[in-house]
């Protein structure tokens, strides 16, 4: 009994340490965003601002088009997430229900594609988009994000489809429903938690992505939030720390709020996908 309690206490302490490790950067970002310039320049930083101020937020909005960049990021992230989920759902159904050499090859493609570094594909990708006249265009960036997130989204949804009992689909087939009707009316509703989790993954990936957006978007009116954040760093590498922290905090909030709103559905989807994944 004593060993069991000691082991459980150790697990809780490890979990607490992990939560502190994850939460500290966010807490420090919040603290920095509300500090006045004098506190940011001190040699002995404090955990929390002694004189909180909103001047960093005002300066950030005055210096850079944050609202316009946020709208660009939102448009790109929502579009790429929606398209990736719409494409991955029927593909995952086929891979899960029809196990053959083709489905195994698809699984192998998913694994291999995640090992490709960004630098390896950026040059041919740039040339292809240039031929399609999609350089410095948000639709071109959406296309890139869909292709990049689709393999992992497919892998996630395949596990969720395998967790859906075949008996439900067989009963619907006996009643005269076709494959498409079964997918839409029977399987898709049961996949809702997994679809939400996959969509959130695709959204966060597109919202936070920096490298492709840096290469493909040239003009400020087309740039997304991660690119705009780099504008707070001067030519000599000196960061305007207060406005940068304020802008970074604003860029972080959408992902946190979205996750907080749908965390129960995500947890349910992860457990469902783990049953037969």
Poorly predicted ranges: 269-277
Helices, by number, come to: 14
Radius of gyration of CA atoms, rounded to a whole number: 23 Å
The main pleated sheet reads as: none
Give the N-to-C terminal Cα separation.
35 Å
So what's the oligomer here?
Answer: single chain
Structural class of the helices, strands and pairings?
mainly alpha
How many distinct beta strands? 0
**Percent range for helical residues?**
over 70%
Q: Strand percentage, roughly?
A: under 5%
On the 0-100 scale, what is the average pLDDT? 82
Order of helices and strands: HHHHHHHHHHHHHH
Shape: globular
Give an account of the 3D structure.
By secondary structure, the protein is mainly α. The protein has 14 helices and no strands. The chain has helices at residues 2-33, 37-40, 55-63, 66-97, 101-113, 118-131, 138-162, 166-174, 179-190, 192-208, 211-216, 225-229, 241-261, 263-276. It is globular. The two termini are 35 Å apart.
Give a topology summary:
Layout (H helix, E strand, L loop, with lengths): L1 H32 L3 H4 L14 H9 L2 H32 L3 H13 L4 H14 L6 H25 L3 H9 L4 H12 L1 H17 L2 H6 L8 H5 L11 H21 L1 H14 L1
Task: Using brief descriptors, characterize the structure shown.
277 residues, 14 helices, 77% helix, mainly alpha, single chain, disordered C terminus
């Amino acid at each position: 009994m004593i060993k069991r309690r000691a082991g459980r206490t150790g697990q809780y302490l490890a979990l607490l340490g992990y939560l502190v490790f994850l939460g500290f950067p966010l807490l420090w970002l919040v603290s920095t965003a509300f500090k006045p310039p004098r506190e940011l320049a001190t040699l002995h930083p404090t955990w929390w601002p002694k004189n909180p101020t909103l001047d960093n937020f005002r300066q950030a909005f005055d210096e850079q088009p944050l609202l316009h960049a946020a709208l660009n990021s939102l448009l790109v992230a929502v579009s790429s997430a929606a398209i990736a989920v719409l494409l991955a759902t029927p593909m995952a159904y086929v891979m899960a229900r029809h196990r053959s050499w083709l489905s195994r090859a698809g699984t192998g493609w998913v694994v291999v594609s995640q090992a490709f570094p960004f630098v390896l594909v950026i040059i041919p990708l740039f040339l292809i988009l240039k031929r399609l006249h999609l350089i410095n265009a948000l639709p071109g960036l959406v296309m890139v994000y869909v292709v990049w997130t689709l393999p992992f989204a497919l892998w996630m949804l395949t596990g969720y489809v395998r967790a859906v009992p075949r008996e439900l689909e067989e009963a619907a087939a006996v009643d005269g429903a076709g494959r498409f009707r079964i997918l839409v009316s029977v399987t898709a509703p049961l996949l809702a938690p997994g679809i939400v989790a996959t969509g959130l993954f695709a959204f966060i990936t597109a919202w936070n992505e920096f490298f492709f957006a840096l290469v493909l978007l040239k003009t400020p009116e087309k740039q997304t939030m991660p690119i705009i954040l780099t504008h707070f760093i001067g030519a000599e590498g000196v960061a305007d720390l207060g406005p940068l922290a304020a802008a970074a905090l604003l860029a972080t909030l959408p992902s946190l709020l979205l996750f907080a709103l749908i965390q129960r559905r995500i947890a349910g989807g992860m457990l469902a996908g783990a049953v037969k994944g």
